[in-house]
Amino acid sequence: MKICIFGAGAIGGLMGVQLARAGADVSFIARGAHLAAMREHGARLIMDGETVSAPVRCTSDPRELGVQDVVIITLKAHSLPGVVDSMQPLLGKHTAIVTGVNGIPYWYFYQHGGKFAGTRLASVDPDGSQWTKLGPERAIGCVLPGRGDRRAWRHQACVRQEVSDRRAERRAHAAHSAIPRDHAGRGFRGADSRQYPR
Protein backbone atom coordinates (compact mmCIF):
# COMPACT_ATOMS: atom_id res chain seq x y z
CA MET A 1 0.00 0.00 0.00
CA LYS A 2 1.42 3.38 -1.02
CA ILE A 3 0.80 6.01 1.63
CA CYS A 4 1.91 9.63 1.44
CA ILE A 5 2.10 11.77 4.56
CA PHE A 6 1.54 15.35 3.41
CA GLY A 7 2.92 17.49 6.22
CA ALA A 8 5.46 15.30 7.98
CA GLY A 9 5.72 17.14 11.29
CA ALA A 10 5.18 15.57 14.70
CA ILE A 11 1.82 13.91 14.03
CA GLY A 12 2.56 13.02 10.40
CA GLY A 13 5.97 11.68 11.39
CA LEU A 14 4.48 9.53 14.12
CA MET A 15 1.88 8.06 11.77
CA GLY A 16 4.33 7.60 8.90
CA VAL A 17 7.04 5.82 10.89
CA GLN A 18 4.52 3.47 12.45
CA LEU A 19 2.89 2.70 9.09
CA ALA A 20 6.31 2.08 7.52
CA ARG A 21 7.22 -0.26 10.37
CA ALA A 22 3.95 -2.13 9.68
CA GLY A 23 5.06 -2.70 6.09
CA ALA A 24 3.41 0.13 4.15
CA ASP A 25 5.29 1.93 1.38
CA VAL A 26 5.39 5.36 3.05
CA SER A 27 6.60 8.66 1.63
CA PHE A 28 6.75 12.10 3.22
CA ILE A 29 6.12 15.57 1.82
CA ALA A 30 8.17 17.99 3.91
CA ARG A 31 10.34 21.08 3.46
CA GLY A 32 13.40 22.90 4.72
CA ALA A 33 15.69 21.58 7.42
CA HIS A 34 13.15 18.92 8.38
CA LEU A 35 13.25 17.50 4.84
CA ALA A 36 17.05 17.57 4.75
CA ALA A 37 17.34 15.78 8.10
CA MET A 38 14.95 13.00 7.07
CA ARG A 39 16.71 12.53 3.75
CA GLU A 40 20.02 12.11 5.54
CA HIS A 41 18.95 10.04 8.56
CA GLY A 42 15.53 8.62 7.77
CA ALA A 43 12.51 9.36 9.92
CA ARG A 44 13.14 8.78 13.63
CA LEU A 45 10.61 8.32 16.37
CA ILE A 46 11.19 8.16 20.11
CA MET A 47 8.51 6.31 22.05
CA ASP A 48 8.86 5.34 25.68
CA GLY A 49 12.59 5.98 25.53
CA GLU A 50 13.17 3.74 22.50
CA THR A 51 14.33 5.21 19.19
CA VAL A 52 12.98 3.62 16.05
CA SER A 53 13.54 4.73 12.50
CA ALA A 54 12.14 3.98 9.10
CA PRO A 55 13.76 4.53 5.74
CA VAL A 56 11.09 6.51 3.90
CA ARG A 57 11.14 8.50 0.72
CA CYS A 58 11.10 12.23 1.43
CA THR A 59 10.51 15.05 -1.00
CA SER A 60 9.08 18.54 -1.25
CA ASP A 61 7.62 17.81 -4.70
CA PRO A 62 4.55 15.52 -4.85
CA ARG A 63 5.12 15.00 -8.60
CA GLU A 64 8.09 12.78 -7.71
CA LEU A 65 5.82 10.30 -5.91
CA GLY A 66 2.96 9.71 -8.31
CA VAL A 67 -0.47 8.32 -7.47
CA GLN A 68 -0.91 6.99 -3.93
CA ASP A 69 -3.42 4.60 -2.38
CA VAL A 70 -3.82 6.91 0.64
CA VAL A 71 -2.81 10.51 1.30
CA ILE A 72 -2.75 11.45 4.97
CA ILE A 73 -2.93 15.22 5.39
CA THR A 74 -1.37 16.38 8.66
CA LEU A 75 -1.09 20.10 8.04
CA LYS A 76 -2.57 22.94 10.01
CA ALA A 77 -6.06 23.56 8.58
CA HIS A 78 -5.26 27.14 7.52
CA SER A 79 -2.40 25.99 5.27
CA LEU A 80 -4.39 23.34 3.37
CA PRO A 81 -6.06 25.62 0.77
CA GLY A 82 -2.63 26.77 -0.42
CA VAL A 83 -1.40 23.25 -1.26
CA VAL A 84 -4.45 21.64 -2.85
CA ASP A 85 -3.11 22.11 -6.38
CA SER A 86 0.27 20.62 -5.51
CA MET A 87 -1.48 17.48 -4.15
CA GLN A 88 -3.09 16.60 -7.46
CA PRO A 89 -0.27 14.30 -8.74
CA LEU A 90 -0.85 12.11 -5.66
CA LEU A 91 -4.52 11.54 -6.39
CA GLY A 92 -5.84 8.75 -8.56
CA LYS A 93 -9.37 7.52 -9.13
CA HIS A 94 -9.33 5.38 -5.95
CA THR A 95 -7.02 7.39 -3.69
CA ALA A 96 -8.39 7.88 -0.18
CA ILE A 97 -7.65 11.06 1.78
CA VAL A 98 -7.31 10.99 5.56
CA THR A 99 -7.66 14.49 6.97
CA GLY A 100 -5.69 14.69 10.19
CA VAL A 101 -6.02 18.45 10.43
CA ASN A 102 -7.00 20.62 13.36
CA GLY A 103 -10.56 21.91 13.34
CA ILE A 104 -13.52 21.00 11.18
CA PRO A 105 -12.47 19.50 7.83
CA TYR A 106 -13.71 20.74 4.46
CA TRP A 107 -15.93 17.68 3.97
CA TYR A 108 -17.70 17.84 7.36
CA PHE A 109 -21.24 18.31 6.01
CA TYR A 110 -20.87 15.93 3.04
CA GLN A 111 -23.82 13.50 3.24
CA HIS A 112 -24.46 14.85 6.73
CA GLY A 113 -28.21 14.75 6.41
CA GLY A 114 -30.66 17.40 7.49
CA LYS A 115 -30.66 21.04 6.51
CA PHE A 116 -26.84 21.33 6.48
CA ALA A 117 -26.21 18.39 4.15
CA GLY A 118 -23.70 19.39 1.49
CA THR A 119 -22.91 22.73 3.12
CA ARG A 120 -19.47 24.02 2.21
CA LEU A 121 -17.57 25.93 4.85
CA ALA A 122 -16.00 29.10 3.46
CA SER A 123 -14.10 29.58 6.73
CA VAL A 124 -12.22 26.32 6.09
CA ASP A 125 -12.30 26.14 2.28
CA PRO A 126 -12.51 29.77 1.13
CA ASP A 127 -12.24 29.16 -2.61
CA GLY A 128 -13.93 25.74 -2.61
CA SER A 129 -10.79 24.04 -3.96
CA GLN A 130 -10.65 21.38 -1.26
CA TRP A 131 -14.22 20.33 -1.98
CA THR A 132 -13.83 20.35 -5.77
CA LYS A 133 -10.20 19.17 -6.17
CA LEU A 134 -9.74 16.81 -3.22
CA GLY A 135 -13.36 15.70 -3.12
CA PRO A 136 -15.47 14.96 -0.05
CA GLU A 137 -16.36 11.49 -1.36
CA ARG A 138 -12.78 10.21 -0.90
CA ALA A 139 -12.27 11.64 2.61
CA ILE A 140 -11.79 9.49 5.69
CA GLY A 141 -12.23 11.18 9.06
CA CYS A 142 -9.43 11.14 11.58
CA VAL A 143 -9.14 11.95 15.26
CA LEU A 144 -5.59 12.63 16.35
CA PRO A 145 -5.16 11.47 19.91
CA GLY A 146 -1.96 11.98 21.76
CA ARG A 147 0.76 14.49 21.89
CA GLY A 148 3.76 14.84 19.61
CA ASP A 149 6.75 17.10 19.79
CA ARG A 150 9.11 17.79 16.92
CA ARG A 151 12.60 18.84 17.90
CA ALA A 152 15.15 19.46 15.21
CA TRP A 153 18.57 18.99 16.74
CA ARG A 154 20.95 21.37 14.93
CA HIS A 155 24.13 19.45 15.70
CA GLN A 156 22.74 15.99 15.08
CA ALA A 157 20.78 17.05 11.98
CA CYS A 158 17.98 14.63 12.71
CA VAL A 159 14.34 14.82 13.59
CA ARG A 160 13.21 13.24 16.83
CA GLN A 161 9.61 12.75 17.70
CA GLU A 162 8.45 11.93 21.15
CA VAL A 163 5.27 10.38 22.44
CA SER A 164 5.26 9.70 26.15
CA ASP A 165 1.77 10.27 27.46
CA ARG A 166 0.35 6.84 28.44
CA ARG A 167 -3.20 8.24 28.49
CA ALA A 168 -2.72 9.31 24.87
CA GLU A 169 -1.56 5.81 24.04
CA ARG A 170 -4.73 4.38 25.56
CA ARG A 171 -6.82 6.78 23.46
CA ALA A 172 -4.82 5.76 20.38
CA HIS A 173 -5.45 2.12 21.24
CA ALA A 174 -9.19 2.75 21.50
CA ALA A 175 -9.21 4.49 18.11
CA HIS A 176 -7.06 1.75 16.58
CA SER A 177 -9.36 -0.93 17.97
CA ALA A 178 -12.20 0.66 16.02
CA ILE A 179 -10.51 -0.24 12.71
CA PRO A 180 -12.27 -3.35 11.44
CA ARG A 181 -10.06 -6.44 11.42
CA ASP A 182 -10.65 -6.89 7.68
CA HIS A 183 -8.53 -3.77 7.08
CA ALA A 184 -5.43 -5.73 8.10
CA GLY A 185 -4.83 -6.65 4.47
CA ARG A 186 -4.83 -2.97 3.55
CA GLY A 187 -1.83 -2.07 5.68
CA PHE A 188 -3.59 -1.56 8.99
CA ARG A 189 -3.07 -3.90 11.90
CA GLY A 190 -5.52 -4.67 14.65
CA ALA A 191 -4.59 -3.41 18.08
CA ASP A 192 -3.07 -5.64 20.70
CA SER A 193 -4.50 -4.63 24.08
CA ARG A 194 -1.45 -6.05 25.87
CA GLN A 195 0.57 -3.09 24.53
CA TYR A 196 -1.46 -0.57 26.49
CA PRO A 197 -1.75 -1.24 30.22
CA ARG A 198 -4.76 0.34 31.89
Key terms:
198 residues, 6-stranded parallel beta sheet, single chain, 5 helices, globular, Rossmann fold, disordered C terminus, alpha/beta
Description:
By secondary structure, this protein is of the alpha/beta class. The protein has one domain (2-164): NAD(P)-binding Rossmann-like Domain (Rossmann fold). 22% of the residues lie in helices and 22% in strands. The chain has 5 helices and 10 strands; from the N terminus they run βαβαββββαβαβββα. It has helices at 10-21, 32-41, 84-87, 129-134, 166-177; strands spanning 2-6, 25-29, 43-47, 50-54, 57-59, 70-73, 96-99, 139-140, 149-153, 158-163. It has a 6-stranded parallel beta sheet. A 4-stranded mixed beta sheet has the order 4-3-10-9, with helices on one face. α3 (84-87) links the parallel β6 and β7. The longest helix is centred in the first third of the chain and has 12 residues, at 10-21. The chain is globular and about 50 Å long. Residues 148-172 and 177-198 have low confidence and may be disordered.
